[in-house]
Amino acid sequence: MKETHILAIESSCDETAAAVVTDGRRIRSNIISSQVPLHTLYGGVVPELASRAHIERIDAVVQEALKDAGMTLPEVDAIAVTYGPGLVGALLVGVAYAKALAFGLKKPLIGVNHIEGHVSANFLEHPELEPPFLSLIVSGGHTNLAFMKDYGVFEILGRTRDDAAGEAFDKVARAIGLGYPGGPKIEKAAREGDPEAIHFPRGKVDEAPYDFTFSGMKSAVLNYLNHAEMTGETVSQADVAASFQAAVVDVLVSRAMHAAAELHQDKLVLAGGVAANGALRTALADACARAGITLYAPSLILCTDNAAMIGAAAYFRYRRGERAGWDLNAVPYLEL
Questions:
Q1: Residue 40 — very low, low, confident or very high, per pLDDT cuts 50/70/90?
Q2: CATH T-level topology, domain 5-121+303-319
Q3: How far, CA to CA in Å, does 196 sit from each of 132, 191, 244, 278?
């Protein structure tokens, strides 16, 4: 059977990425141009700067992906691109580039949901994995519990009611003086702290047991810091980081395990940028081992935004005959 090679493009936030993926399971190349040094100066992603950087880098990144894959543009079977969710300007750069490429080459165009891409990263890491399965998706902009019924077919069981877990990490990191990017900095600081030093609340939504809420937890950290400042108490940055991280991990793991038990699932997939967090990976692995559940998680490079995961998701849509029209547009608040 002829192999299918998909050239994928990802530009939803602050990484300009391109990859060539074969049959949705094998990475031929995966190039990521990070903008972290650019945005660190401002303490977070500046949308306009992100868009400009994508424009400057996208062509070179695509050419490098093709070179690493040992392929030319005419040899790819389809062009895939993230069209949402994300920053509208950043998304438009990738969508416009992919549309022009597909039109000029007379190749099929496939639009991919960024969050579906994160889940699909596990198909690259674990070729044996097939739906149905339960997925915990944890990123800077999203925190979802989703049941993947089939390739690209999801039922959302729970979602965050306010901040996403990654967003909460970033805000708390700024509050305790760690800066950007918050997730990795909190994880590093937490290694030197006591996760039981401070008790932060584990927010829950009574009428929706699978939903998440992190704003109260974030507010509890700010209240703790304000109280310490008013009373002249010394704040341990490491203890705050460790205690906050422990609270977030506790909520994520407890919700996922509750859903797995209620739905009688024996497979759990972890996905998203926060899936790179070592404390979360360890706690979830331990909980799954106790419950007899097989945990699937991507390697760290596939947790962050990348184009290989977009290529994986696109392959299964391509195989079903799905094609995007030339009116494909950026959808910044695209739902899974």
A1: confident
A2: Nucleotidyltransferase; domain 5 (3.30.420)
A3: 37, 13, 9, 17
pLDDT tens-digit map of 223-233: 999 999 999 99
The β-bridge relationship of strands 15-22 and 26-34 is: antiparallel
Q: Which CATH architecture has domain 130-298?
A: 2-Layer Sandwich (3.30)
Task: Read off the tokens for 271.
Answer: 């996905």
| CA–CA distance, 119 with 113 (Å, rounded to integer) | 10
Q: Beginning with the edge strand found earlier in the chain, give each strand of the sheet holding 26-34 in spatial order.
A: 26-34, 15-22, 5-10, 78-84, 109-113
3-state secondary structure of 78: strand
CA angle, 273 as apex, 289 and 90 as ends, to 5°?
160
Residue 51 CA to residue 56 CA, distance in Å, equals 9
Mean pLDDT check: name the lowest of 33-37, 121-125, 183-187: 33-37
* Cβ contact 217:170 at 8 Å: no
The single-letter code of the amino acid at 177 is G
Q: Which two tokens stand for residue 160?
A: 């965050």
Between the two ends of the chain, the Cα-to-Cα distance in Å is 31
> For the chain, what are the domain ranges?
5-121+303-319, 130-298
Report H helices in the chain.
Answer: 36-40, 47-69, 88-105, 114-125, 165-175, 182-190, 215-231, 237-262, 278-291, 300-303, 308-319
Give the residue among 167, 258, 263, 170 at the shortest CA–CA distance from 213.
167
- pTM metric for this prediction: 0.94
Query: 5-121+303-319 with 130-298: one CATH topology?
Result: yes
Single-letter amino acid, residue 335: E
Q: What is the 3-state secondary structure (H, E, C) of 256-271?
A: HHHHHHHCCCCEEEEE
Alpha-carbon dihedral angle through residues 128, 124, 281, 261, given to the nearest 10 degrees: -40
* H-helix or E-strand spanning residue 205: none
Tell me which residue has tokens 């998706």: 137
d(CA 229, CA 241): 17
